[in-house]
Design brief:
Largest sheet: none
Number of strands: 0
Order of helices and strands: HHHHHHHHHHHHHHHHHHHHHHHHHH
Strand content: under 5%
Amino acid sequence: MASLSLPRVLQQRKTSLEIERENFEKFQATSLSKAINQLETPVKEKHVRQAIIGTFQEKGAQTFWMVTLRLPLQDNRIVAWKFCHVVHKVLREGHANCLPQSQRFRGKIDDLGKLWVHLREGYGKLINLYCSLLKTKLDFHRRNPRFPGNLVVTKQELEAIGENDINVYFHLSVEMFDYMDDVLALQSAIFGSLDMSRSNSMTSCGQCRVAPLIPCIQDAAQLYDYSVKILFKLHSALPPDTLDGHRKRFLKQFRDLKQFYQNSNTLQYFRNLISIPSLPENPPNFLIQAELRTYVTPVVILPPEPEPEPDPVVEGSLIDTSDSVDLDTASRNGSVSPVGSSHFIEVVAERDALIAHLQQEIGRLRQEMQGIIIEHKKNLSALQERITLLETELATRESELTQERQLKEDLFQQASAAVQNQDTEQKTKEEKFNKLKDVYTKLREEHIQLIRQKAEVDKKLFGCKKIVEELETKRTQLEAQVIELKSEKNKELENVQQSVKQQVEELEVLQAQHDYLKSENKNLTAKVDWVVKEKENIEYQLKELLEQKENLDVRLKSVNEHFVELDQSLEKERKSHEEQMKNILDKVILESENLVNHAVHEVDNPALSGATCGPDYFKSLVPGASDALNELKNLQNIKENHDDLVRITIQIGHRLSNLLLQGKATSNTSRNILFGEQMADECKRLGASVATLLQVLRSGTNIEAAVSDALTHLDALNNLVDQLSGQLKGDSADIIADLVDDELTQMDKAIEEAAKRIEDMLNKSRAADSGLKLEVNEKILDSCTTLMQAIRILVQKSKLLQGEIVAQGKGTASAKEFYKRNHRWTEGLISAAKAVGSGAKFLLIAADQVVSGQGKFEQIVVGAQEIAASTAQLVVASRVKAERGSKNLAGLSEASRAVTSATGGVVATSKACSQLVEENEELDTTGVSLHAAKRLEMEAQVRVLELEQSLQRERLRLSSLRRHHYQLAGEQEGWDIIEKEN
């Protein structure tokens, strides 16, 4: 009951994380409602992309399912159809956790399909088939969790999934066939509905139906590829008769899939959305293992998505000018809230979200680039294999041609013999024809005679019908006479029956009166006997009740005596319980007082002078301590509410002691020694007031005054921390404004020095090296020189755009004041400039080591990619403040694309040079025995496993380092600038 009296001011405010979560859910709900609407138009790709990005930001699909299940899926067929399409896209392209988290919603999808299957026309059947496909997809990934949502795995991963077990491959092929059947059933129903509704792919309703075929085409291509490879493996290990059912099922799916792709190619809607692969004319023959070499993997190619424009919401949220408004409203309400700290936390959270989003985009682009390179290599290898196979086939065809010529001569001889046999057979056939002709003429004559006989029978039948009609008229006349006679007879019988009935009724009345009198007499005698018996029973029961009353009186006395004894024992227990609770309360208060006194004593401890704490963290501790003190102040009936008092006392002791120690650590961050000592003294005074409050609490008198005194000291200490936070922010902003030009100049110098060093290394390599090493060094250094030139142009464009931004934004103020006013944006610019300079140095060192033969090509790839990421950060930092129509901004974007292209050249050159070196250093197997070759093969397998484990560990280490870097980036930049200035 005490919690009901707390004022509304003490309700906890929403943290920045809660606000960010709420905004994220609102944005996802808006995107999904726009994607899954009631209009019969295709789902817009940008809304689906926002939902997919949301799954990566959340690392799951909880918000997606929470929002979509609230939509009217069971009320509108278009909404249900688009829901299935969006779910399919999210399962394919969303975060890896979307598949396991969506398993528990399989029943919802099943219920949706069962509901709409009753709508037999239009979308009803389509929704049912799509729900069946989604259920099959979820079941497939549940049984095979190593397959990603888009079903894309490498050859090594497919072999790892099969575990080199023929039983696993057998079951996996059956599951893939089931999956493919659902895909083909859905596409067949969609094309069938297009014919029924007379719609095509160029109308909005037709596009709404055929849009889900794009993910179906992608799934079908992967399933077909894996089915072919798995069936070749099965045929290499099992007899053909065992796999006869597999072959028949595959052939049927091959024909349907080929027809599906041909129908999709004819639709104009798919021309700019997807490149549909073409299947060969004949299916692969699994009985011939050599055909696996000529097999070409079908590749589905999606066009690159357009580069999204900068989000104006993100640009507006980087600079928040709502501080003054918050302070004014707080001053009107008479309360002070930590606006500065919340604003700082919101800005840091928004910046971290932007960095994470950019990092995800960079990772996605890297994966796409790697996928394109891998696909290109696959195509090259496939073409090379195809050329060799064609050459071998050409030789075999020539040998087969000579055999065919010999067969031709043999067949000519056989044909001449067959002609003679056909002449004899022709004669026998003519004889049979003549016999059949004679039989036909006989049957025709008999048929004519029967027709004539039928005409005579019809005439006789007509005469018989006339005679029957005359007899029918006579029969009706006789029936009318019979009916008249029956009516007269019935009247006479009715008169006789009425007279008999009257006599019988009189006899029945007299008999009933006689029976009634007899029954009344019997009833009266029975009632008299019953009354006598009831009187005897009542007298007996009365005696028993009197005896029971006497027994109950005796038991009531004994129970009253027992109740008195229980009351006495309960009073004793209550007193002992109160004494125990009072002792426990005194111990809790005393222990809390000892904690506070210990914290006050630790404030003067010299060992604590080296500890530091940020003002923002200290201010996050103040609301908890203030809430605990106010809750004690508003607590009613302190002597009775022992549980609440123990809880509040423990909170005050813990929170206030922690607050005092963190306050001392916060005072150590002040550059003014006197101000730091003032904060330490205020911490002591706060601790003394809290200790006094706990002493008063034991006595139970004048508690409100002691709580008010402690709150006053707490507010004073909070104000000192606000002053310290303002000093630190002001100093860092001044330093940031002074260091912008220095960092940009140092970045330019670092890039120029790196370009000169690369040119020197190229000259030295040409003078000292030759052959393959010279060729590799020239390619590497030339690509690095091109990258440095592109970066130098980008830096120049960035300086021009920077001058334009400062000229437009400063107004009448100076450039330094502009940087100081926008110090958050300036910090991001400085961080980007530092990253570009450090990336150039790293690339220079990596190139020097590779040229000297002590480095690895992967170091150059990492350095180039790091420079590209840093330049992307520099472009984004400059684009935030620039106007959209700025020519300098367009030049900067063009320079950024040139840097990206040069980075791709460095990466491609490094990989090509690495391949040249590896090809030059091939293993010499001459003179190696069978046993030695087996031993070398096993050692190579062990080395491969070790490298895979090492790669996995390094990836985990890289992800943890990146998370740690992004967490510390905002805090570390300000402190690095202050240390440089000192």
